[in-house]
Design brief:
about 250 residues, alpha/beta, single chain, Udp-n-acetylmuramoylalanyl-d-glutamate--2,6- Diaminopimelate Ligase, Chain: A, domain 1, six-stranded mixed β-sheet, 2 domains, five-stranded mixed β-sheet, elongated
C-alpha cells in the first residue's frame, strides 16, 4: 500500500484532529512510497529504529514519536543520529500519542485493562483519558494483592503507596497509562479504591496517604506497550501487511 493510504487509515481510526496533544500526530518522517512490512514499538528510539531496519520494515508505527512541543528544533546529537538512520534507509515513521491512549477499542488504556482483567465501565476526564471499571473476576481483598497481580501480568515492579489508615478491598479501579499522575485527584473523586498509572510524582504520595485511595505506579513503558500492538495488528489485517512488534526494554 502507499504511505499516504496508510496515513489515511490511521487518521480515520484514531481521529487525531479531535485532540490537543504535545506533538504532531501522523506521518513524522517520510520514507519510501510503498509499504509492505510494518514494525510497531513504543518509542522511536535509536534502538527501535535500528531493529526496524534489521527487520526489513518499510514503516515504523510508534506511540512516542520524534517531535514534541517546546523541544529544541536543532538537528544535532541524538536527533541527528535517529534522522540519519531513517533517511538513509528510507523508513517512514508514523506516531500517535493521545489519540492512541484514548481509542475506545485499540487504545493503550483499554488494552491495558484487557491485560489486567479490568472491565471498562466509564471513560472520563480530559479527552477521555481516565478509565474506570472493576475486576472482571473476583474482587481483590487488598491493594497489595492487586499490585502483585499487576506485577505478574506486566513483568514490571509495581510501586504501591497505600493509605495511612483505610485498607479496603479493590472493587473499583481507575487507570491511565503512561505519565498519568495528574488524574489521581479525578480518580479519588470518582470513588476509586485504587489508581493505576505508569509514574508517580511527590504530591501523589501524600494524596494517597490522606485520601484513602491506593496508588500504583508500574512503569510508563510497561503500561503503554499494548495499544500500538493492537493498532498494528488491526491495520495489518485490514491491508494485508506484514506486521511485527519489537520490544525495546525500558525500566522507566
Amino acid at each position: 500500500m502507499h504511505r499516504n493510504e496508510l496515513l489515511q487509515t490511521l487518521d480515520q481510526i484514531l481521529q487525531p484532529g479531535g485532540f490537543r496533544d504535545y506533538g504532531p500526530n501522523g506521518l513524522q518522517v517520510e520514507g519510501r512510497a510503498q509499504i509492505r512490512r510494518l514494525v510497531t514499538g513504543v518509542t522511536a528510539s535509536r534502538a527501535l529504529i535500528e531493529a526496524a531496519i534489521a527487520a526489513g520494515a518499510d514503516a515504523l508505527l510508534v506511540h512516542h514519536g520524534l517531535f514534541w512541543r517546546g523541544q529544541d528544533g536543532r538537528v544535532t546529537g541524538w536527533m541527528k543520529e535517529r534522522l540519519r538512520l531513517l533517511l538513509q534507509h528510507d523508513l517512514n515513521v508514523y506516531a500517535y500519542h493521545l489519540p492512541l491512549d484514548a481509542h475506545p477499542e485499540l487504545g493503550n488504556n483499554v488494552q491495558l485493562g484487557l491485560q489486567l482483567g479490568l472491565r471498562v465501565e466509564e471513560r472520563t476526564g480530559e479527552q477521555n483519558l481516565l478509565c474506570l471499571g472493576e475486576p472482571a473476576g473476583d474482587v481483590f481483598p487488598s491493594a497489595a494483592l492487586f499490585a502483585q497481580h499487576v506485577e505478574r501480568v506486566l513483568g514490571h515492579r509495581a510501586l504501591l503507596v497505600e493509605p495511612s489508615e483505610s485498607h479496603r478491598s479493590v472493587r473499583r479501579v481507575a487507570w491511565c497509562t503512561g505519565g498519568g499522575q495528574g488524574y489521581f485527584e479525578a480518580a479519588i473523586a470518582a470513588g476509586a479504591d485504587v489508581y493505576l498509572t505508569g509514574e508517580i510524582s511527590e504530591p501523589q504520595v501524600h494524596y494517597a496517604r490522606e485520601c484513602g485511595v491506593a496508588y500504583i505506579a508500574c512503569g510508563h513503558h510497561a503500561t503503554e506497550r499494548y495499544g500500538v500492538q493492537a493498532l498494528g495488528r488491526a491495520v495489518a489485517d485490514l491491508h494485508g501487511l506484514e506486521h511485527q512488534y519489537i520490544e525495546i526494554d525500558n525500566p522507566a
